[in-house]
Specification:
Length: about 220
């Protein structure tokens, strides 16, 4: 299988199951225009996050790593009108683009974006959150996991993006701090008796990567 084929299948599945949507497309377009990196979750992945949030009846969601707000919109749309989503973004340009995209999607009342390093914002938040999506700077994943557990309750679903990185995650000697951050993140999840977890490798328009899912027990 090649990247071309993975992308073609993703396009087919997206066309069949994930109808295109003006606000989501506008969010990606505005992100491109502003020169943001193309690192948002794919449409099928965004819808997976959305369906998981709805499945657990989430009323409060924490997201670490907003970028242009694409995954934020998917997640916030899973919430009831009295729900809340808190999203954390360090980069001022990303935050500004995201705020505009979130408002354009009609979600400004549900979403609170804290601009600044996530570790600073996390210390100010009150939990528990029903779902926590970790998708920012990978070297900080171990610290984000510690906060996620603190801001959780039994039943909280913690999800981490980009845990495979083209397979680099299997290399214990990797000099890449992103890989080391993800490896430590996985180890800490495995060691924590309060977490019951699995991970899934994914292919598609974003290449070869994966998600980790941990349930707080
Ligand atoms: N969740 C987004 C993608 C996030 S990309 C989506 O799927 O649509 C990762 C984001 O984390 C980038 O916008 C980057 O600026 C941000 N980031 C990097 N370091 C950070 C930090 N220390 N605190 C908060 N955000 C950070
Ligand atoms: C990168 C980060 C992401 O969150 C992502 O989904 C894809 C790539 C990156 O840092 O390269
Ligand atoms: Mg990601």
């Amino acid at each position: 299988m090649t990247q071309e084929r993975w992308t073609a299948v993703d396009d087919y599945l997206t066309g069949a199951l994930v109808p295109s949507d003006a606000a989501l497309e506008a969010a990606l377009d505005a992100s491109d225009v502003a020169g943001l990196p193309r690192e948002a979750v794919s449409p099928t992945q965004g819808k997976l996050l959305h369906l998981l949030a709805r499945s657990i009846g989430a009323k409060s969601i924490l997201e670490i790593g907003t970028l242009g707000g694409y995954s934020t919109i998917w997640l916030a749309r899973a919430l009831p009108t009295d729900g809340r989503l808190v999203t954390l973004e360090a980069n001022a340009t990303h935050a500004e683009v995201a705020r505009s995209n979130i408002a354009n999607a009609g979600l400004a009342d549900i979403v609170t974006l804290h601009q600044g390093p996530a570790l600073d914002s996390l210390a100010t938040l009150a939990g528990p959150f029903d779902m926590i999506f970790i998708d920012a700077d990978k070297p900080s994943n171990p610290a984000y996991l510690e906060w996620a557990v603190k801001l959780s309750r039994p039943g909280t679903l913690i999800i981490g993006d980009n845990v495979v990185r083209d397979g680099a995650v299997t290399d214990p000697t990797s000099a890449d701090p992103k890989v080391q951050g993800v490896r430590r993140f996985i180890e800490l999840i495995a060691e924590n008796p309060r977490l019951d977890a699995t991970a899934l490798q994914t292919v598609g328009s974003k290449g070869y990567d994966g998600f980790v899912l941990a349930l707080v027990t």
